[in-house]
């Protein structure tokens, strides 16, 4: 991808917490924000990945803190937010990357799986938002960046639980925009298209999937984690002060909102 230049110092003095930040799109976003001066909180369920990602960030001179927490566990999630605020003095932005997306034929989807996916993807976003809003109101500044998916725009039976949870995230984001607007808080949702993340590249027949999707895009190339990091870096920054409640597709123009 052709990346825009790093805006040195754009995040100086800012603290950003990223759920699911130890791998993939989460880590790409963390690295981008850290290079622009942010102090980072990396929340994840993978302890080894947390240690590895925090070490990589610190090697670049980036302030980084790791938090082992399940986003669907209210006590763990709120505890990580509180610990990050204590460590940095602020929570200027939260980026909600944590998600699970089991691919199960609709007729075989169990209620337990449905509930688990919604617990992580939707309940986790709700818990995080409810934890940071009072902090951001007191600061008079905040950025909430949620993550949905372009699959919401097309529907796909084997991802029914994931798509339904992300529809909820979009609705929650609009509520948060109303809740936070008068306090200098914005909330926006990014809908990634097909991206060459670690998880996607590990899927069977992924090259065939790219070969099918890329020609439908206005910009005919593969999406990369850095493309999502670019969008996060703008929406979580002070520059995006008059954008809120929006769902922004980042998929090369294969779908229009």
UniProtKB/TrEMBL annotation:
SUPFAM superfamilies: NAD(P)-binding Rossmann-fold domains. GO terms for molecular function: oxidoreductase activity. Keywords: Oxidoreductase. InterPro entries: NAD(P)-bd_dom_sf (IPR036291), SDR_fam (IPR002347). Belongs to the short-chain dehydrogenases/reductases (SDR) family. This is Unannotated protein. It comes from freshwater metagenome.
